[in-house]
Design brief:
Layout lengths: L1 H6 L27 E3 L2 E2 L4 E6 L3 H10 L5 E5 L4 E5 L11 E2 L3 E5 L5 H4 L8 E3 L7 H10 L3 E2 L2 H9 L8 E2 L5 E6 L2 E6 L9 E3 L9 E2 L4 E2 L3 H9 L3 E3 L2 H9 L4 E6 L6 E4 L10 E2 L3 E4 L5 E2 L2 E4 L3
Antiparallel strand pairs: 1-7, 2-6, 3-5, 4-5, 4-7, 8-13, 9-13, 10-11, 11-12, 14-22, 15-21, 16-22, 17-18, 18-20, 19-20
The structure holds 2-acetamido-2-deoxy-beta-D-glucopyranose (NAG).
Length: 299
């Protein structure tokens, strides 16, 4: 966990090494990706120093030795030190040493870290991918899709652990889950990244408001904005359900009913035909350009 946090600010330094017969799919065979942390070592757990001409050979030595959990490689000295411990076990022990890099061949199992068994159908792929398309196809292989933004927001609120920069639904950027929320970054130039796969359905999801505003008459645009979020403009009944789940929003936005606006505040100032079932304020006086309340599609 802490190890991952250490990795985050250094994602630019994540180094990749693979070896052996180059077959597709990294969960078997000798092809593995190694997380590298530049200029760091985990002292005190080495049990063997070898002189080897390449990082890949050092990785191979570690891979075939059952005692080896991680290794150090010094490019300058061509020194390969095999370690019997991981930085995830001793996160505070990873110290700076110029010229030597720490490599951890294992990928942590994020599924294990999920908080108290609450269902968050999201997983980080074991393999790291160079392209959005290959990450997407790995998600499809298990009946999932690359997570949409609102799914990541939800997962983050549910306590999903921090991740390195990862592929998600938007092909133009990468998502990083941190302790405090989700952030989005430009694509790295070379580093491979894991994919964040999500699976519908979740039992209940809060409405989401489209990032963009739409003209009142642009119903097609409003529907499209929601559909980009795997959702549709909310009906009053859905907003009532959301309210009953504790969702509140003071923003006046469009909804499924044309030419009205709504907010989810318990009808503090509205009544009669401007208050749906005592909970959802909605008026026939919408502004001409607003964002839309979208309710997640259920399958
Ligand atoms: C390997 O070499 C490094 C650098 O000389 C040293 O710090 C480390 O203790 C050695 N490890 C073992 C297991 O001898």
């Amino acid at each position: 966990m802490l190890f991952l946090l250490l990795l985050l600010p250094m994602s630019g330094l994540v180094t990749e090494a693979f070896f052996g017969s180059h077959s597709r799919g990294c969960s078997w065979g000798l092809e593995r990706y190694f997380n590298g942390v530049a200029n760091r070592v985990l002292p005190g757990h080495g049990y063997c120093n070898l002189t080897l001409p390449s990082l890949a050979m050092c990785g191979m030595e570690c891979f075939i030795d059952d005692r080896c959990l991680t290794f150090h490689y010094s490019e300058g000295e061509r020194r390969c030190e095999l370690n019997g411990a991981t930085a995830s076990r001793y996160p505070m022990a990873l110290i700076e040493r110029a010229g030597t890099d720490y490599f951890s061949p294992e990928q942590p199992s994020f599924a294990e870290l999920l908080t108290n068994g609450r269902e968050v159908p999201i997983r980080l792929t074991d393999c790291w991918y160079h392209t959005h398309a290959s990450a997407a196809s790995e998600c499809r292989r298990t009946g999932q899709h690359l997570c949409l933004q609102w799914e990541l927001d939800h997962a983050s609120k549910e306590g999903y652990p921090a991740t390195p920069p990862s592929w998600y639904a938007d092909p133009d950027s990468q998502a990083v889950l941190t302790e405090t929320g989700v952030t989005y970054h430009d694509l790295p130039l070379t580093a491979p990244s894991p994919g964040l796969c999500c699976s519908l359905p979740m039992t209940y999801r809060d409405p989401v408001i489209t990032p963009q505003s739409y003209d009142l008459a642009d119903r097609a645009g409003q529907v499209r904005g929601c559909s980009d979020l795997a959702a549709h403009p909310c009906t009053l009944a859905e907003l009532k359900e959301a309210y009953d789940h504790g969702y509140r929003s003071l923003y006046w936005g469009y909804l499924a009913t044309p030419n009205r606006d709504t907010r989810v505040d318990g009808c503090t100032h509205h009544k009669d035909d401007e208050c749906y079932q005592g909970t959802i304020a909605n008026t026939p006086r919408p502004a001409t350009r607003k964002q839309v309340y979208c309710c997640p599609n259920r399958v």
